[in-house]
Design brief:
The chain has helices spanning 7-28, 76-86, 88-108, 142-212, 218-252, 277-290, 292-313, 350-414, 420-455; strands at residues 114-120, 132-140, 319-327, 333-341. By secondary structure, the protein is of the alpha+beta class.
């Protein structure tokens, strides 16, 4: 019998195989694709939103007990709350948790068995002849051995991702507080520099008139002009910094550029507390149990431990078992099975084990390095804050005398009882002291916020004071 004579039978056999394969595919089911187009416009709030703070939506330390009332202007802590709720980068970052949850689901699924279908068409031989068809179903047993460890690894990774999201929320909150501090003190510095510029503008105007009348010298007028030019430069530089700070704060809060964030009148440093000795020691001791990033590294380490165990277990039971059944060309039916095993001679999964061990060692070293670094950084920041605080207290003790002297100089100058140069010198000294106080307060607030970040301490800043 020739191949051309068997062509109809061959087609019939092929159709049978296709039908059986299609039936199995239909039983397995398929995922459906749905398009998700990208946005073509920014999704930023055009004004300060009227949000309701739900305690379950926030993971920041101690922030659940903090009142949120933006009507009277936002303070340094309310800005942090709003940033966690509205920050665009956080919205994107939180999607990582969904990916990790999908990985847990994937790890929990058992591998599918394999099915092989084959057929043959007899060309010659003694009758009666029939189409031959064979089916084999097999399963790799090694996947069952490592299944539990891989599920544990995926769950630990999910925990690490969730903790990392909390750490990012904490970072965003603290960054928003820093932007708030910068913006708040920039406005106070602008007021002083405005006074500084007006003072030298007035002095230069008087000196110019006196120079034209021959009542002063060029060096005096030139000194006043230099002071005015310097004041203008400092004012313009601050204006640029304020523009940057305003846009940074808007971006951190998920607001459209140009939205004015109302700032509370109370100085940010009044809402912050520097920990005392006992509180600081307790806070540093709690860092490994409190800081979300350190907890995330621990969870990641646990995940890698499980992966290493799975890699080691993969050395064993490299076995695939199969069951076979079918009909041969003599119309004889048979059932059987076979077993395949990988011979552990060359590979033995040693490469994957080495990679898993090295990765676990890297994670362990990274955790220890971060812990060591941040213990030292916390002590450095606390020492720095105490130095700034001491300088600020000393300056605050000096300021009343400086202010009284400047007021007396103003009165004496207005009464023509004080030379213009002396009046300018005393007023400049007072303004410089005000600017110094602003700089110290800003530095103290920023240092305490950074210390809070390192310690993972409550954002409300309540507790023992120094």
């Amino acid at each position: 019998m020739t191949l051309s004579q068997n062509l109809p039978a061959l087609k019939n056999l092929a159709l049978k195989l296709l039908a059986m394969g299609g039936l199995l595919g239909a039983l397995a089911g398929c995922a459906r694709f749905e398009a998700a187009p990208l946005a073509d416009a920014p999704d930023l709030a055009p004004s300060l939103p009227q949000v309701v703070v739900h305690s379950a939506a926030l993971h920041l330390p101690a922030v659940r007990q903090y009142p949120f009332n933006p009507a009277a202007g936002l303070d340094v802590n309310e800005v942090a709350i709003l940033a966690v709720l509205q920050n665009p980068d956080l919205r994107a970052y939180r999607t990582r948790s969904g990916v990790a949850q999908a990985e847990v689901f994937s790890a929990g699924l058992l591998p599918d068995p394999t099915f092989t279908l084959a057929g043959a068409l007899p060309i010659s031989g003694p009758p009666p002849l029939s189409d031959a068809i064979d089916g084999t179903i097999g399963y790799a047993l090694r996947s069952l051995l490592t299944h539990g460890d891989l599920v544990h690894a995926a769950r630990s990774n999910l925990q690490a991702v969730d903790l990392d999201v909390v750490w990012q929320e904490w970072q965003v909150a603290q960054q928003a507080r820093l932007y708030f501090v910068e913006d708040w003190y920039d406005h106070r510095e602008r007021a002083v520099l405005g006074r500084y510029r007006a003072l030298y503008a007035s002095a230069y105007r008087r000196a110019s008139q006196a120079l034209q009348q021959g009542n002063t010298t060029l060096d005096v007028a030139g000194t006043d002009l230099t002071g005015l030019l310097d004041a203008n430069t400092r004012f313009d530089t601050l204006e640029q910094a304020m523009n940057t700070a305003d846009h940074q704060l808007d971006a951190e809060l998920g607001l459209a550029p140009g939205v004015r964030v109302p700032l509370a009148p109370q100085a940010p440093v009044r809402d912050l507390r520097l920990p005392g000795d006992a509180q600081f020691r307790a806070a540093t001791a709690r860092m490994p149990e409190r800081r979300p990033d350190l907890l995330a590294l621990r969870a990641g380490y646990a995940s890698q431990n499980a992966r290493l165990r799975a890699a080691i277990l993969s050395q064993f039971l490299p076995l695939t078992v199969s069951a076979t059944g079918g009909r041969d060309v003599s119309n004889t039916y048979s059932w059987g099975g076979h077993m395949a095993i990988d011979l552990p001679i060359f590979n033995r999964n040693r490469g994957n084990i080495a990679v898993a061990q090295a990765t676990r060692g890297r994670l362990r070293a990274e955790y220890q390095a971060r812990l060591d670094t941040d213990y030292g950084l916390a002590d450095q920041l606390r020492g720095q804050a105490r130095v700034i605080e001491s300088a600020l207290h000393r300056l605050q003790g000096e300021l009343p005398l400086v202010e009284r002297t400047a007021d007396a100089a103003q009165a004496a100058f207005d009464a023509s009882n004080l030379p213009a140069a002396t009046y300018l010198q005393l007023e400049t000294a007072a303004l410089n002291k005000r600017l110094e106080a602003i700089t110290l307060e800003r530095g103290l607030a920023e240092t305490i916020i950074t210390l809070d970040t390192v310690l993972g301490e409550p954002i409300s800043g309540t507790g023992e004071t120094s």
